[in-house]
Amino acid sequence: MSILVVGSLAFDDIETPFGSSPDTLGGSSTYIALSASYFTSDINMVGVVGSDFTDEHFGLLHSRNINTNGIQKVEDGKTFRWAGRYHYDMNTRDTLDTQLNVFADFDPHVPAEYRSSEIVCLGNIDPELQIKVLDQITAPKMVICDTMNFWIEGKPEELKKTLERVDIFIINDSEARILSGDPNLVKSARIIRAMGPKILIIKKGEHGALLFTDNGIFAAPAYPLESIYDPTGAGDTFAGGFIGHLTRCGTITDLELRKGVLYGSAMASFCVEKFGTERLNGLDLLEIEDRYQSFLDLSRIDG
Amino acid sequence: MSILVVGSLAFDDIETPFGSSPDTLGGSSTYIALSASYFTSDINMVGVVGSDFTDEHFGLLHSRNINTNGIQKVEDGKTFRWAGRYHYDMNTRDTLDTQLNVFADFDPHVPAEYRSSEIVCLGNIDPELQIKVLDQITAPKMVICDTMNFWIEGKPEELKKTLERVDIFIINDSEARILSGDPNLVKSARIIRAMGPKILIIKKGEHGALLFTDNGIFAAPAYPLESIYDPTGAGDTFAGGFIGHLTRCGTITDLELRKGVLYGSAMASFCVEKFGTERLNGLDLLEIEDRYQSFLDLSRIDG
């Protein structure tokens, strides 16, 4: 099965207590696609970039077998830019600058050959654009969606229309509380799942993630990392690993969903070890399997 | 094996968004002993109360087969009192009032029949008193210790002397960061374990707990409760269930430590369902086993 990934491509200027990394390749769809590329080889991206997005950047995606035919390049424009600074504890950050650039007029066009995509992954973009993408897909089997508080607060009705068509929704804990209006995550999950997505993942950053399905709740731990250099993209990397695993195994059972959450967590734990997407470029399958095993060991109770 | 529990007995005035509960029986050793009483029947308390601690209160402890001969009753004094108010999210609280009363002059005296205790549980009290207790014990096999930021910041040297004699240290995440001086919990754990306790548990409130031993890290999830009425005593209740399980099985392997963390978590999840110790009074072993099983299910990955 092929995965269609729609979201942002960006250049980030990142500052953390450990250093800074200017002009770093980023964007939600970049992290999602790179992460998923370790699980499946049929990944198609739809997005928009400017002339500053060079062959070298495309080459990096191609080296991971990611199809970029759906990425529009606006020759007289500049790629979306984000600048942020992380605090000492790495859990909070300030956005220093956002330049939408070519992303301001992004009108997602899904190329004909992608319209039969079975798995559609809607990265964190305007929910109106998310719907535009879905309208172009013939018969999606699985729609995964991410969002952020900006859209929850700014376009709640449009987001709710999107959610009616979403199978798996990935959100973080503070966003879940805002969207549901309830501080309790169990109640939040019930309220949000009633909006459409039968499968809900609530990410809790350094505290792991919760998976809610009809069959109950799964609590995935976070990997207790000694060194976190840059949390940028960790959530998207999680989504990519999660979707990649589900695509690879081709079945959505509770067991595979749980494993998917751990694979997503494993990929996110790699992501934060270096700046930007750096760590996601040169992974090998064995170290991913090892990290997954470490996640299993973290919560193992053997009789 | 018998457990010696030393700590505070108190009356708490508790306010939460769900209501208030004045004159509620509390104190670290009360929660610890009540929780442990579901796992072992040989629990001895050492502490101090005033004349307002009536036969009814002693009766409640006796009904759980807890031996109270080591509790000094000061007839012309009043029991330690604490008043606090929890915020909307239940994760933060303000202390409204603290009256040490008879606790101000507490000089723990371990009765002769308790001095051969093999398991000593030092609740959150002045580290100088914790050492005084240890000096009275002949040959403890396992010393468990809790503390709080008040002592970490106020008596760091005394606390470090205590820790040299502690086998299992239980602390929350913010306290671990203060004590170690490092925001990263993995690094914090290494620093704290070098102070003495080979086994360290870092509690993360609604995010579960981490167990650090020579053999690695165990991450226990928190039970995703829909209704949390009162978090007071949850940490002490955790400690009681943890110690109770270890005492019951009589062996300290990594497996039993992990199970102990889940039993402690299960007991804490009951504690917060009602005000004060109310929920800890009428539990039965079957519902504890059921809750423990729910914790196992929360992180289960079956092949």
TrEMBL record, chains A, B:
Keyword Kinase: yes
Domain of life: Bacteria
Record's keyword annotation contains Kinase: yes
Pfam families for the chain: PfkB
Keywords, in A-Z order: Kinase, Transferase
PROSITE patterns: PFKB_KINASES_2
InterPro entries reported in the protein's UniProt record: Carboh/pur_kinase_PfkB_CS, PfkB_dom, Ribokinase-like
SUPFAM superfamilies: Ribokinase-like (SSF53613)
CDD domains named in the record: ribokinase_group_C
GO cellular component, one term: cytosol
Start and end residues of each Carbohydrate kinase PfkB domain: 25-278
Protein name, per record: Sugar kinase
Taxonomic lineage from the root: Bacteria, Pseudomonadati, Chlorobiota, Chlorobiia, Chlorobiales
